[in-house]
Amino acid sequence: MRPASDCAICHSPSIERVPYDNHERKFNTTVLRHHLGAMLHKTGVTSEWLTHRLLFSPTQNIVRCRQCGYGCYERDFSPGELERYYGRRYFLAGGLPEEQWDDFGYVDQHFKTRGQWAFVSPHLDRSSEIRMLDIGAAASRMSRLIKHHLGDRVECAVVEPGEGWTGYYQHHGIRVAGRFFPCPDEQQYDYVHTSHWLEHVERLEPVLQGLRDRTRTGGLCFIEVPNCDATYFARAFPDAPHIHFFTAASLPLAMKQHGFEPVQVAECAMPNPEYFHFRYRTDSLTEDERLTVEKTESSIEQVPGGSLLRGLFRAVA
Ligand SMILES: [Zn+2]
């Protein structure tokens, strides 16, 4: 890949490079380990473990646009590298234990899903059948929630790389349309749902084109991603394993360029400056702290600089 000289979305030449997972440009043992690992890798020392550890590395940069705020991890992946990661290594790849498959609390007590439902449901056409596609679905909480509210009028399909979910989908009557998107699938959908997926895709262009191809004209596409505004890049927010970094300006622009018009776009949940105090130490949060953060994710109130970016887009002719 040729180094970028302008923004892939708004084409502004005003770009900067920010070290991946190291926005404050600190030198610490993690960064040192990555540099040593990268040197070993270059000298021909390769193992799946080392390759995997170096997939998302502070030895590489994010190209960030000063105009629209869009950022992109500037790294080439070898064929199949990301597929292997998301199929087996990613923490959600293994699925849910069977005894939890019917636990509806797992769906309706999940604050983020509640917020997504509140955001989307007023715009769904409840008078007819709904064909829904959830991409990067994991447990596809939204499929189950929509079926719960609207019943058998809803037909659900998923795209999910994780190898551990097959039995769960069969159990819930959810069709697997593919493992990676775009996938060979001729179907068009009335509602395409993506929650914390678009920031993980390797190449944005074919994926956005694929979203338009799979959404029927007049249908809706929901996208939720982290809100990577100026605060995000000024603080040491963890990036891995994200490839794309969106803002309230760049996401609608990218969608407009691919045949969608915004129905509503909102920054939600806890403002990034406040959220940072929780996010950088996710592993050591108390239960109360975790709940404090998660509860804000169920709200669809507009919060300037909120940590979540939610957008609902309509496919236009
Ligand atoms: Zn831009």
Number of helices: 12
State the distance separating the first and last CA atoms.
33 Å
Question: Judging by the overall fold, what is the CATH architecture of the domain at 97-315?
Answer: 3-Layer(aba) Sandwich
Point out poorly predicted stretches: none
Helix content: 25-40%
CATH class membership of the domain at 97-315: Alpha Beta
Mean pLDDT value: 93
**Beta-strand residue fraction:** 15-25%
Rounded to the nearest angstrom, the radius of gyration is 19 Å
Going across the biggest sheet, name each strand in turn: 6-5-4-7-8-11-10
User: Would you tell me the structural class of the helices and strands?
Assistant: alpha/beta
How would you briefly describe this protein structure?
The chain has 317 residues and is of the alpha/beta class.
Q: Can you give keywords for this protein?
A:
4-stranded antiparallel β-sheet, 317 residues, 7-stranded mixed β-sheet, Rossmann fold, alpha/beta, 32% helix, binds zinc ion
Overview of this protein structure:
This protein is an alpha/beta fold. It has a domain at 97-315: 3-Layer(aba) Sandwich (Rossmann fold), CATH 3.40.50. Helix content is 32%, strand content 23%. The chain is built from 12 helices and 11 strands. It has helices at 29-42, 48-53, 81-89, 105-108, 111-120, 141-150, 166-171, 204-214, 230-234, 250-256, 272-279, 287-296, and strands at 15-19, 61-65, 71-73, 130-135, 154-159, 175-178, 189-195, 215-226, 244-245, 260-271, 306-315. The chain has a 7-stranded mixed β-sheet with strand order 6-5-4-7-8-11-10. The longest helix is centred in the N-terminal third of the chain and has 14 residues, at 29-42. It is globular. 37% of the residues are buried. The model has no long low-confidence stretch (mean pLDDT 93). The structure holds zinc ion.
